[in-house]
Amino acid sequence: MKYLSWILTVPLAIVAIVFAISNRAGATLNLWPLGITVEAPLFILVLGSALVGLIAGGFIAWLSAGSTRRRRREAVHRAEVAERDLDFLRRKIERERNAALAPRNAVPDAPVNDASRSAQSGPNQLPAARA
Fold first, then answer.
1. Residues 43-51, mean pLDDT to the nearest whole number
2. CA–CA gap between residue 28 and residue 38 (Å, rounded)
3. Cα–Cα dist 61/53, whole Å
4. Which of 11, 23, 103, 107 gives 43 a disulfide partner, CB atoms 3.0 to 4.6 angstroms apart?
5. Where do the structural domains in the chain lie, given as residue ranges?
6. Global pTM?
7. CA–CA distance from 52 to each of 55, 59, 73, 107, 118 (Å)?
């Protein structure tokens, strides 16, 4: 990109210098509706009007790109919000995964398997087999 800039800039600068040297004769510019008359060398008037046109074109291009810049800002904002949401959901999934993998505490009121209890007969016990 740097070389392309030099390839374009150097020839244009040489053309502008040659143009300025060969067009040093005076010229009169009359800005009719304003009543302004300017006398200057021709190369100043030509290069000056080219510069004014360049600045005006750049300003118009900048204005017309305003909607693109606005859409870009909105897209960046939406991306930032989505990143925050994604980070929140990742942390939530990690917490849920850690909670699922954590050892569960024993229930304090759980019945104890006791040999003496199983030997007792009760309503929930199967009848003994008859011989």
1. 93
2. 6
3. 12
4. 23
5. 18-63, 65-101
6. 0.55
7. 5, 11, 31, 85, 104
